[in-house]
Design brief:
heterodimer; A: 325 residues; mainly alpha; ABC transporter involved in vitamin B12 uptake, BtuC; two-stranded antiparallel ribbon; 15 helices; 1% strand; B: 234 residues; alpha/beta; Rossmann fold; six-stranded mixed β-sheet; four-stranded antiparallel β-sheet; globular
């Protein structure tokens, strides 16, 4: 672990925004707090995806499978077998990690390359949706209703808006710290070396499968935990929302618009785009449904044309140039 | 030290290498020569484990490494400098070098080896904090060699280190290789540059269309007209 990680952990630039965010439940209306919670959940999802998509540079389209596993498996275990959702969350995360490792295994075994990896993971996402729709234990196509939240923390109940906002904030913070920890640890260097040049990385003894599988397992487990929290928060697990490849596309778009590799890009993009999208949906949802998707579409075109590395790295480099001038 | 016997390999299509055998003794600098498409890179990719051979065996220090993982082979002491330099462009020169010494065997000795690399290529020391992608071609080649040296190789394999470099840098690189060899490092050098290679190698092996066409000491190869013919594909 490099010293810059501990600097990051001590940095007021990290803790002041977190402290301000933690106070938001006292200042925001229930509607705006719900938007904030959603934005934080997407921060977690985008940061979890960034481990594989950004740091390792592999476009994984299977994250909906992990989110769906976290949401549906943990909920089903709770409803059908009475297993505490904390425990269910851990089980689902472990299952997701194993699925992720399996995908890495396919990648390493058959040397898939970037495009094939994206397609294979997309296939997993599609299969995942079909499996969910056909499995009654997981609620089938109609989804799962969770029992009422009584604010019992030990049962994974956070008791309403503020509780879930804080839970989402903690999870987003964990995802951010994990991203930063990976970047300043050996694993992050291995993954970036493999991203930049797989053959050269192997030629100096970097283990391809072990590195990629570790990154994938971390990404999958974090996505799964976000899925479990999402499920408990919305009280109802909608398989078309949480287990469908559309969710992955949304995550990938947000992370790519923000800028991959460093955690700042996906973080800021999710914090800006989700509230804007939600407010647009609130204002124009009746007359112009899907306007936020249109916005994402326009943004991704603009970003790809003007700054392919993403908005946040672009702004940082502009600031550097401005300072020098 | 390295014994390759009856190696046959390819990339999905027809065989690129057929029944190639090659020995490298400890302390030698052996040149692997041949025209484009002769199979030189395929051969060293098999040795470093990046490519699985279809038949034949590779032994290193008396042990079979034909099916070993690339990372395992690096730990055993064979490090490859890939063709076209292939540094990690978005990492600093120092990070590139440190990554070269990342196997469990090499890690404890990273600091010493870093000093050795900087003695060999002082230019890299000056450029430590710079992104590797901003280096010139010759400097990137130095970095690629330095990175391989960080792994503490017993056998260093280089794939076309002179490719695309200015004559001045070619001189620097080959001087460094000679120096490393004089210090006792065994080197397997893949090159198209015939005269340059034979001037520093003890022995050479000439590949032609995936097979060993000629092998012998540098002096005999230089005198033999068939060496040049192999290059011209006659």
């Amino acid at each position: 672990m490099r010293p810059d990680f501990f600097q990051f952990l001590r940095s007021p630039l990290l803790w002041i925004p977190v402290a301000i965010a933690a106070c938001l439940p006292w200042g925001l209306s229930a509607y705006h707090l719900a938007i904030g919670t959603l934005a934080l959940l997407y921060v977690s999802l985008a940061l979890a995806w960034n481990v594989v998509g950004g740091i390792a540079g592999q476009i994984s389209l299977a994250n909906s499978v992990f989110v769906g596993t976290g949401a549906l498996l943990a909920s089903a275990l709770y409803i059908r077998l009475g297993i505490d959702m904390w425990f269910g969350m851990v089980i689902a995360a472990a299952v997701s990690a194993i699925l992720g490792v399996f995908m890495s295994l396919l990648d390493a075994r058959f040397r898939l390359g970037h495009l094939s990896f994206a397609l294979v993971t997309l296939a997993f996402a599609e299969i995942g949706e079909l499996v969910v729709a056909g499995t009654d234990f997981l609620g089938g196509a109609s989804g799962l209703d969770l029992p009422k939240d009584h604010g019992r923390f030990w049962l994974f109940e956070f008791g309403g808006g503020p509780g879930y906002f804080w839970a989402a904030l903690v999870l987003a913070l964990i995802c951010l710290v994990v991203n930063q920890a990976i970047l300043s640890s050996r694993l992050g260097y291995y993954l970036r070396a493999l991203r930049d040049n797989e053959d050269a990385a192997q030629a100096i003894g970097i283990e391809l499968f072990r590195s990629k599988a570790t990154g994938m397992a971390i990404s999958a487990a974090l996505s799964s935990v976000a899925g479990t929290l999402f499920a408990r928060y919305s009280n109802f697990v909608d398989p078309t929302l949480l287990a469908s490849p559309n969710l992955t596309i949304e995550i990938v778009l947000i992370a790519t618009i923000g800028g991959l590799g460093t955690p700042l890009g996906p973080l800021i993009a999710a914090l800006v785009l989700i509230p804007v999208g939600e407010i647009l949906r609130g204002q124009f949802g009746g007359t112009l449904p899907g306007l936020h998707f249109f916005l994402y579409g326009v943004l991704i075109i603009v970003v790809v044309l003007t700054s392919p590395q993403g908005i946040v790295p672009r702004l940082l480099s502009l600031r550097r140039r401005f300072r020098r001038a | 030290m390295l014994e390759v016997a009856g190696l046959t390999a390819g990339y999905g299509g027809p065989n690129v290498l057929e029944d190639v055998s090659l020995d490298v003794e400890a302390g030698e600098l052996v040149g692997l020569l041949g025209a484009n498409n002769a199979g030189k890179s395929t051969l060293i990719n098999c040795i470093s484990g990046v490519l699985r051979p279809r038949a034949g065996s590779i032994r290193f220090l008396g042990e079979d490494i034909t099916r070993a993982k690339p990372s395992d082979i690096v730990s055993r002491g064979i490090v490859q400098v890939p063709e076209g330099r292939q540094v990690f462009p978005r990492m600093s020169v120092l990070d590139n070098l440190l990554l070269g010494g990342t196997t469990a065997v090499a890690r404890p000795r990273r600091a010493d080896r870093l000093e050795q690399v900087f003695t060999l290529f002082p230019r890299l020391k000056e450029r430590r904090p710079q992104y590797a992608g901003t280096l010139s071609g010759g400097e990137q080649q130095m970095l690629a060699i330095g990175r391989a040296m960080m792994g503490g190789p017993k056998l260093l394999m280089l794939d076309e280190p002179s490719l695309g470099l200015s004559p001045l840098f070619v001189q620097t690189i080959f001087r460094a290789l000679r120096e490393l060899n004089a210090q006792g490092l065994t080197i397997l050098l893949v090159e198209q540059n015939l005269n340059l290679t034979l001037s520093c190698a003890v022995r050479g092996v000439v590949l032609e269309r995936g097979q060993v066409a000629l092998a012998g000491t540098s002096a005999t190869l230089r005198a033999d007209p068939r060496t040049r013919q192999a290059y011209l594909g006659l």
